[in-house]
Amino acid sequence: MLDHMSGGPAWSRISVVTPSFNQGKYLEETIRSVLLQGYPDIEYIIIDGGSTDNSVEIIRKYSSWLHYWVSEPDRGQSHAINKGFFHATGDIFAYINSDDLYEPGALAVGSSRISRQQPLLVGDCLIFDENGIKHTFKAGWPEKLTYLLKPFGSPFAQPSSFWSRSIYELVGGFDEYLHYAFDREFFLKIGLNGITPMVINQPISRYRDHAATKTAQTIMFYKESIPIINKYAEQCGLNEADKNLLLKSCHDEIGYLNVFSTWKQKGRYAGLAEFFRLLVRSPWLLSQRKILGQFRRLLFFPEHDVAEVKNV
Q1: How far is CA 256 from CA 222, 225, 308, in A?
Q2: Across the strands, what pairs with 254?
Q3: Which residues contact 132 (CB under 8 A, 6 or more apart)?
């Protein structure tokens, strides 16, 4: 159980949004982790993207405890989250995906620490799978905001965060053109407004690691980092040379991952063809050990084991 320390307004209304699509396998556990918080003023909103599994049946089961819910096609996760907050009236906002969980007492901690002077709170997150807890993602905040420009440059796990309604409105919510890196871009915008979070080193949530999680779509995070770098590099104090170096590293990694993707989808010879196209575009990659390792795997790795090579 998390401790509830005083310091913020007592029992502020917290609006929690859960975006979901065909996550019936995990959804009920997520819902129960929110509703069983014992928090006296929670506004829980579920935005389902038109699921075809048993998700709607599960949502209806808990509908009398929900502030709002809908099941209809949307334009992706970031759009669903913004749709949810459109119906929110709380002073404190948070979202938790339909396969993650809150730790007991999480909302009380969020309520006690968020204030006008401290509009963002982040905490630790327990990473778990079907075998139990794997490790703890320790929360932090970078000295330089350029860290948030990097793919997978998240200093804390998103489920373990709360922020004020005013900050959400100030930065304009989540960018609906982004589908993978939208939360990192959201917190970058907050940082660019001169706000640093209160960091508490205790678990607030649990992130479920499973094969279908979006985090496994590595190549998409690199692709979405490119417009983020182009848009915010100057505001983060990055000079043109360092910006181009960061962009180059993203393009190189996309090319490297695309070789694996092509191999997995179309077979070894298509993967080799993609590998040589990559070297024609970026011959400097030959100096990297992992590129040479990739070539060896393309030549000698068992075809039926390719799925184990890389998540792309």
Answers
A1: 11, 16, 16
A2: none
A3: none
Of the chain, the end-to-end C-alpha distance in Å amounts to 37
Q: What pTM value is reported for the model?
A: 0.88
Cβ neighbours around 74 below 10 Å, total = 20
Q: CB–CB of 47/77 below 8 Å?
A: no
Q: How long a stretch of residues is the chain? A: 312
Give the model confidence (pLDDT) of 209-251 as tens digits.
Answer: 987 776 668 899 999 999 999 999 999 999 999 999 999 999 9
Q: Identify the burial level of 234 via C-beta atoms within 10 angstroms of its C-beta, where 0-12 means exposed, 13-18 middle and 19 or more buried.
A: exposed
Is the distance from CB of 20 to CB of 57 less than 8 angstroms?
no
Position 181, amino acid: A
Token representation of residue 304: 């039926």
User: What kind and span of H or E run contains 132?
Assistant: strand 132-137
| Amino acid at the residue 159 | P
Q: Yes or no: say if 123 and 160 are a contact pair by the CB < 8 Å rule.
A: yes
Q: Mention every residue, 6+ apart, whose C-beta is less than 8 A from residue 169.
A: none
- What span, in angstroms and rounded, lies between the C-alpha atoms of 178 and 182? 5
Per-residue pLDDT reduced to its tens digit, 21-56: 999 999 999 999 999 999 999 999 999 999 999 999
CA nearest neighbour of 213 among 97, 295, 104:
97
Lookup: tokens for 46:
């579920």
Residue 4 has pLDDT above 70, yes or no: no
Angle in degrees, 0-180, between the axes of helices 289-300 and 268-281, rounded to the nearest 10 = 160
Residue 73 · residue 20 · CB < 8 Å: no
